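Dear colleague,

Following up on yesterday's call, I've attached the two folding results inline so they're easy to grep. Please treat them as preliminary; we haven't cross-checked anything against experimental data yet. The first protein's sequence and C-alpha cells come first.
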Amino acid sequence: MANLMKPLKSLWRRTPFGGPPKPSVHVIELTGVIGAVGAGRNGLTLARLEKTISSAFQSDDVSAIALAINSPGGSPVQSRLIFRKIRRLAEEKNKPVLVFIEDVGASGGYILSLAGDEIYADKSSIVGSIGVISTGFGFQETIARYGIERRVYTAGKSKSQLDPFKASNPEDVSKLQAILNDLHEQFIELVSDRRGTKIGSNNHDVLFNGDVWTGPQAHELGLIDGIAQLGDFLVARYGKDVKIKRFSPGGGSLLKRLTSKYVAQDTGPGRDFEALLDGAEARAVWARFGL
C-alpha cells in the first residue's frame, strides 16, 4: 500500500486539484564530534547516520538537500565515509547540496562541509582547521614516583610504540609524524578537488597550516561561498512557501528514544569512569575552538 500511495501523492501535487507543487528542502543535521565518542557512543558515524541520510534523499520531489553542520571534527575516516555517502546520493539523485555551518565547521567538520555544492556560514562561525592532530600524555615519571613497574610483552617490536607509560621514542614519533603527514595530504587533496579555483593557488600555505577563521575570513579565502543562515537563505532562494523538513540521527519513535536513553545509562564504577573519559575527550575537541 505504501508503494502505491507514494506515486498517487506525487500525481496529486501535479494536478490542477492539488495545485503547483511547493518547493521543499530536506535538512540533515550533523551536530557533534565525528567518530564513536561519548558514553552512549553517539558521535557522528556513518553507521549512525546512514539511514538518516538515505531518508533525506529518498523523495524525488525535493528541491535540494541542506546540511546543517556544527562539528569540531574527529575521526578522519568517519568524516570521509559520511562525505562519500552524501556525494554518492547527490550524484545518483541529481540533487544540489547546500551547506550551512553553524558554530563551527572545522577539521573533520569541514570535510563534511565539502560534501556541499555551496557552503555558507554565519559571520561568527569558526571554519577551517585543515590539518591533522594526535594528542596524548606521558605517565612514565608518575608510575616511577609510586614504585609501579610497567610490564609489557609483545610479539612484534612495534606493538608497544607510543606507550604513554614509557619515555617517548624518537623512532615511534617519526612513524606517527609520517602517518599524520599522509592524512594531511589527503585532506589537502580533498579540499583542492572540491573547492577548485575558489581557494586560489596563492593561498595554499595559509589555508593548509591548521589555522581557523571566522565566516568573513573563510569567505575571503574561498573556503565558503558566502555569509548566510539556513532559514533566511532557503526562503530567499525558494520562496516563502518553501517546506523545510529536518532529519536528525536522534529521531525515531518516542519508545526508541527512551529505550536508547535507558540503555545508555548503564551504571556502575566502570561505566561511570568510561563516561567521564568519553565526556572529557569530546569536551577537549570542542574546547580547541573556544566552545
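Below is the second protein, in the same order (sequence, then structure):
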Amino acid sequence: MLQLTLYALIAGLFSLVGGLLLIWKSNYAAKVITPLLSFSAGAFIGVAFLDILPEAVEMVEEPHAIFLAFLVGFTAFFIIERVLMRYFHYHTEGEAGEHGEHTESLPLLIITGDSLHNFLDGIVIALAYVANPALGLTTAIAIAAHEIPQEIGDFSILLDQGWKKLNIIMVNILSSLLTVVGVFIGFYAAGFFENRLAFLLAAASGIFTYIAASDIIPEIHHRAGHKELYRVVFAFILGLIVIGYLVSVSH
C-alpha cells in the first residue's frame, strides 16, 4: 500500500510543480505550455491504448464487453463535463474563436473540477495497480504529465482573478491530496469488485481517451493556431514513445 500511495503522490502533488513554475518562471512557462500540453495528450492516448486497454483485454476471454466498457467510460466523462458546464460554468459571450470573459465564479469551477478530477485519477491508479503494480506506475506518470500543464493553466486564471500566490498553492495541495483518497477507495473497491476489474480498467481507458481528445487536443489547437507544427507534433509523439517504452520495460 505504501508503493500505491507513492504513485498517488506522484500523480497528485507533482502537479504543484507546474503551478510553481508559472508563479516563479512565468515567462518560461508561457513558452513551453503548448508542447507540454501536446506531450500530455500523447501520454494519455498512449497509456489508454498501449497499456490499460490491452491489459483489460488480456483479462477476459471475450473482449467485446471490454470495448463497451471503454465507451461507457468515455460517455460517462462526457456527461459529467456537460453537467459541470451546464450548472457551474458561467461566462459572457466573446468574439468567435475566442474564450469568453470569465466571471468571478470561475475559480470555484476550477477548484471543483480539479478536485473531482484528482479523486477520479486516484481511483484509476488504484484499479491499474491492482491489475499490475507496474501498470499503476505508468498510469501515475501519464496522469502527472497531464497535471503539470493543466495546473499551469489553472494557476494563471486564479492569479488573474486576484488570488494570492500562497492561497493558490494551498488550495492546489489540498485538491491534489484527493488523489490519495481516491487511491484508497479505489483499491478497496477494486478488491470487492475483483471480477469486474477488467471492465473498470476499460472504462478508465475511455476516460483517458476522452480527456486527451476532448480537452487537451482542442486546447492545443486553440493555443498553437496555424503557427506551430513541429514542436507540437514532436511533443505528442514523444509522449507516445515514453509511455510505450515504459510499458515494454514494465512488462
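For the second protein, one point worth flagging: The mean pLDDT is 78.

Best wishes,
A.L.
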